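Take a careful look at the protein record below. Let me know whether the structure tokens fit the sequence:
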Amino acid sequence: MAAAAVAPVQSDVKLFNRWTFDDVQDNANDLDPKVKKYLRGDGANLEKLKDKKLKGQLADREQLYGKSAKAAAQVEKWLMPCEEGYLEADGLEKTWNIRQDNILGEVDILSSRKPFDLVLPELGPYTVDFASSGRYMVVAGRKGHVALIDMMNMDLIKEFQVCLL
């Protein structure tokens, strides 16, 4: 009985957990302004060098710098938000009159799981700012009240009263 030869199966499946420089190059058209932000200045002038080994090493290094700048621009495109969200009222409706219950029905599922109510009646009005990751929130009142809150756990990290001497 002869064994049948099995041909290897060709697969067109692309691995999604790794990306290469070629993937970054495909999107280079819309990244060019952002790539310039990550470049390390003007490249070395290789034409004046006479040492072939040094010239080759510097050429490789400059190519690596270009690849890393393009990769950093691609990561910025993936991770950094393009624009901030905002609330737009219809007609004569006022934004302060819109309740969180109304907003929860209009946002995505992940955002609708995170509503919170913050009541700070005494030392306001308050200014609120978030860390770039969205993990921490700082609340500062006009009368000196400052609080740092972990938004993942909704835990108060630090709270203090600032006063002028």
